[in-house]
Structure formats: C-alpha cells, structure tokens
Write a structure and sequence with these properties.
Blueprint lengths: L6 H11 L4 E5 L5 E5 L2 E5 L14
Antiparallel strand pairs: 1-2, 2-3
C-alpha cells in the first residue's frame, strides 16, 4: 500500500498524509501491531484449532 518494506516506515508515511489516530497492522499469523499516539504495541497471535486465517490474493 505504501511501497515501504518496514511496517513502521509505512505507518509514518500514512500519518504524514492522513490524520488517522489508530493504525492496525496485521502481519498474518506471525503477529499484529497497533500504532496510536506515538506508541506501538506488538503482540503474538492466540491461535487455536478453530482460528480462521484469512488469505489475501
């Protein structure tokens, strides 16, 4: 979307152009990040046998 390979650089690119207070970044089944108010929180997923993983094509 941004052309950036680094997630944080991509979020910063978006913030420079748009006033979005909360940006969520999904990194598939590896982890997710939330960027808000100058903070970044990164968490590992909680996967179980009934977890649905969506694939983008």
């Amino acid at each position: 979307m941004t052309g950036k390979e680094d997630y944080t650089a991509g979020v910063n690119w978006i913030r420079e152009r748009y006033q979005i207070p909360l940006i969520l970044v999904s990194m598939g089944k590896e982890e997710s990040r939330a960027y808000y108010n100058g903070m970044m929180v990164e968490v590992k997923p909680f996967l179980q046998k009934n977890t649905i993983i969506r694939l983008k094509f």
